[in-house]
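User: I'm writing a short methods note and want a consistent example. For Phosphatidylinositol transfer protein alpha isoform, I'll paste the sequence; you return only the structure tokens, no commentary, since I'll be parsing the reply automatically.
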Amino acid sequence: MDDKFYIKVETYHVADRGDSANVHELDADKLKAREVVKIDIAGDEVSRGDYKEAEDPTKYKSEKTGRGPLQENWIQSADPV
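Assistant:
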């Protein structure tokens, strides 16, 4: 890789389900250029080499909080968001 190459990731966490249109208050040009990537930690595929059952949110239940495992469509039913 060239020293001039970089990737910049900006995140902003808001209490919604990822459906706010412009949380960063970008101008029209930046809004048109941006890419929104939604990540579903329970539904997105994980490569076989990276998969660990102990880290699978569809199987894990926290003993401390009692939360989990995540069910299908968890994003729509999660509370609190």
